[in-house]
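Before any further analysis, backbone shapes were mapped to integers, which produced the following:

***
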Amino acid sequence: MTGTMMALALFAAAAMTGCGGETGNGETSGTEVAEAPADGTSTVYVQLKGDFANFQPSTKNHEDNVSTRLSYYETLFQWDYNGECTPLLAESYEWVDGNHIKIKIHDNIHTHDGNPITAADVLWSIQYAADSPEFMRHTQNINFGETEILDDYTIQIAINTPNVLFLNDLSRIDITSEKSFNDSPDHMLTCGIGTGPYKMVSYTPGVEFVLEKYEDYWNNDTGREDQLQNVDKIVYKFIPEEAQRSIELESGGVDIVTTTAISDVDRFMEDDTYNVSEFALTQTQALYFNCSDQSVCQNKELRQAISYAIDNTAMVAGIYNGHAHPAVSVVMPGVREWKDEMEDNWKYAYNLDKAKELLSQAGYAPGELTLRLATGDNSSWKSIAQILQAELSEMGVNVEIQIHDTGTYMSVFSDFSQWDLFVNEYAAKGTIMFYFYNQMNNNTRNAVGWQNDEFQELLAEAIQTDDQATIDRLVEIYEEEIPSRPIINLTRYYTYRKGIDNMRLKDDYTMLSGDLTYTDEANSWLYD
């Protein structure tokens, strides 16, 4: 059982207080004082899309949480800037055999409240993640009965079946001290206590959370090129409205916008006051079909009909002003399965006549069917939902749109009784197997309830062998059955003030503010 339910009762009392006696209320703009203060401290203000309202370890799989957490929580392994999964808290590791991995952690790791991290804390953190609905898929292959603590800093983890992606699972699990968690008044609901280069000092719901450089960071003297502390304080401000993000940047309320409004990208690119960094992501916005027995979308011909009715080239033009890429496969550019010829061979290129034909084959007359389309309150998802509603109307299918806020949309997604269609996103790292394994796998998480025996058998084989021919066959089956219809391959634009250098991403969309370089040009606005 996680501490979430126990902590909710304490949330209201703790939410607006600081961690460790600090407070984030009353912060001023990063542009109000031009000269450095006597103590040389500096503050950077960074925009996030929305409040994820839970700072417990391995609990909230919200994009802004995942993209910032390495600043205050850390993991055994991480996806580094070189695109590889590398050790972080782990000092060394070895596969004893296909089912056992021995991991030695550094012996000087401690949390922001001073508690040492031992192998027992590693095991506790993994077991805590196993109770999280949003993170349990990363622990389901672990055989806890055979997992052993070998000494204070060494753990041997047993897994049920060999898995070429297991280090990725471990890279998702936040490690902290069991004592720190138990000593926290609300079990870290409003104040994450980890081991990272920055410590959390305050959280104001719906407004911001604040991190400060942790002077006793265990990793300070290792010579790493990441997990740096190049700024003293980071204020993450929640700004869900796209237009408001640009206003905040231009008025000095924030120094970095992590999700620039597409309508403003060209304007900022032409303005010498700012830099704009463009990153082609392996994130894909998609229409998920409810393939369970609780929806008519378990009908393959219906899924295919809807897939042909989607004009995603027009969506890219209309929603993203061309600053994205229409998806032409479940595989996206940037993973090894991508082939340039996929551009011209997309099975579900827009074809309204084909859509109507397949709708009839599925057994439905025009106007007969009404589907529930759900999504979160992300502005682009809502736009996609509205366009889908219009496009499916043209093929003779009615759509009712349901918008759910950031705090609830994932729980709705997990409940097959509440939707037929769902607009969401998926990502992969290096191989499409990340998506198949994490979202279409009966042994971890089947996000849409899609059942195909051949696919599941080949997936179980590929996860052990990493055989490319087997993976290619998985792609073929998937695109024939189309349990989700990829729509848009995303590009992200970071806009930030001149003087910030070395803008780079970990893990496809993780930008760590402490790792950025703040040059002399930034000093006129960076100081608090």
